[in-house]
Amino acid sequence: HHPQLLFQLQAWECPVQMVCKELKSVDRDVTPWLTVTIHCPIYNTFKWHRRDKQSVLARKYLEDLMYKHSVNFVLSGHLHAYMRTEPVYKGKLDKKGPIHIILGNGGRQANTPYYNKDPEEWIAV
Predict the structure, then answer these.
(1) How does 59-87 read in b/e, with b if 16+ C-beta sit within 10 Å?
(2) Is the dihedral of CA 18, 21, 23, 29 positive or negative?
(3) Are 79 and 49 in contact (CB under 8 A)?
(4) 24: closest CA among 83, 54, 65?
(5) Residue 8 has pLDDT above 80, yes or no
(6) Model confidence over 29-49: pLDDT tens digits?
(7) How would residue 4 be classed by pLDDT, with cut points 50, 70 and 90?
(8) Is 49 annotated in the active site?
(9) Average pLDDT, stretch 102-122?
């Protein structure tokens, strides 16, 4: 293993195991709506922070897990903006995928520029 990759795997191993354990323990008859909260967004239509390391790693290590356990919503912040996706998985529309919502627009001017002129197919708002 490359030392950097090994560090990334070790750094994410415990949190991923913890998230997996928590998601497995949810009784969907009692808790029909499952929400995950993370700081940096996995999906982002804005110009800034598209390739932040923590977002890239969260997508790499958590996206499959959230899909497997039918997470309904993924709430994040970090960006000073609002964005909501359609259900998405692996960058494509997927009715079984979670809806991702960036809620970083409170308390500060929300004027983060968009990355593309036209939004990605998975953007709702």
Answers:
(1) bebbbeebbebebebbebbbbbbebebbb
(2) negative
(3) yes
(4) 65
(5) no
(6) 999 999 999 888 999 887 777
(7) very low
(8) yes
(9) 73
The label of the residue with tokens 């500060």 reads 108
Q: What is the DSSP letter of 124?
A: -
SS3 label, residue 69: coil
Catalytic residue among 1, 2, 39, 49: 49
Helical packing angle, 3-25 and 53-68, nearest 10°:
40
Question: In the prediction, which pLDDT does 67 show?
Answer: 97
Average pLDDT over residues 64-85: 91
pTM: 0.81
User: Sign of the CA dihedral 86, 91, 123, 53?
Assistant: positive
Tokens of 92: 């494509």
CB of 94 within 8 A of CB of 71?
no
Alpha-carbon span 38 to 75, nearest angstrom: 6
Question: What's the residue count for the chain?
Answer: 125
Which amino acid would we find at residue 10? Q
What the block records as the tokens of 65 is 């897990």
